[in-house]
Amino acid sequence: MNQAVSAALADAMREDPAVVVIGEDVAVPGGVFKATDGLLAEFGVGRVRDTPISEMGFLGAAVGAAATGLRPVVEIMFGEFLGVALDQLVTEAAKLRYLSAGQYGVPLTVRASVGAGLGFGAQHSQCLETWFYATPGLKVAVASGPQTAYGLLRAAVRDDDPVVVLEPRRLYGGRAEVVTGDDGIIALGSAEVRTAGDDVTLVALGGTVPVAQEAADGAGWGAEVVDLRTLVPWDVATVLDSVRRTGRLVVVEEGPFSGGWGTEIAARVASELFGELRAPVHRVTSPDVPVPYAKPLETRYVPTVEYVREQVGELIETGRTPRPWWSREGAHR
Questions:
Q1: Which end of the chain is more exposed for a tag (fewer CB within 10 A), N or C?
Q2: Where do the domains of the chain lie?
């Protein structure tokens, strides 16, 4: 997947000389996760620049550059590092078109690695979609593998407004064939039905997509697995059409239960399809605790294939909302 990111950036830079890449260690080292490897050699220091360790500074510079003619792609090494520069993104970039009455757009792409699974601890393992998805003016996309990493990033760079592209870092080493060029671009706001099924709709995003798909593949029930791909705007029609067919919805999220992105999906489906549901809308999430560092605890923290399969199976069998593992075991209230 990291090679797909690099290929998307290279193709975008060949297509448009206004595209530039900046961030910590993106040039000479080729990115800490090697997602910008080879760009410096092809495009030079004028278009691929290493920055000081100052997210507020280089993201602010990118906002200004985007408003005055460039299409910057900013890499944030770990999603948490956006915390010190959030004002530049949600207050400046997201609002400039509105505040200027359309005179200035901000064609800015912000990439950030996110998620648990690699032992980076509580301060470097969060998903953080909720930092962005309630901000008008921002689009938010999340990669679930090599093809979505390529296609969503290409669409983001072409977009005339700011887009945040989140990349689950535990998927960087995943391999798959990738369609490149215009045929490989994935429109923002479009979900993908990955597998067909009649018993339940599983809506997943980013790192939970392969988990949901594997859980469905080995189960005794049939699931329609939907990769949401874009969180803002999300593909309401595809999700509603799927749930109308199956009568059940389970949202699979990596983040904590409280305030997760799945609350928006659940509320919309429950509101519009209440009379057609065969069971309560259910969310499978992580508990409301920091991401643990110890490997056994981190593995337990995120939804696993077995846990998703167990939760969905109980929902289908009983028609009732299953309790989460931490509630059953008294581990967290």
A1: C
A2: 2-184, 192-328
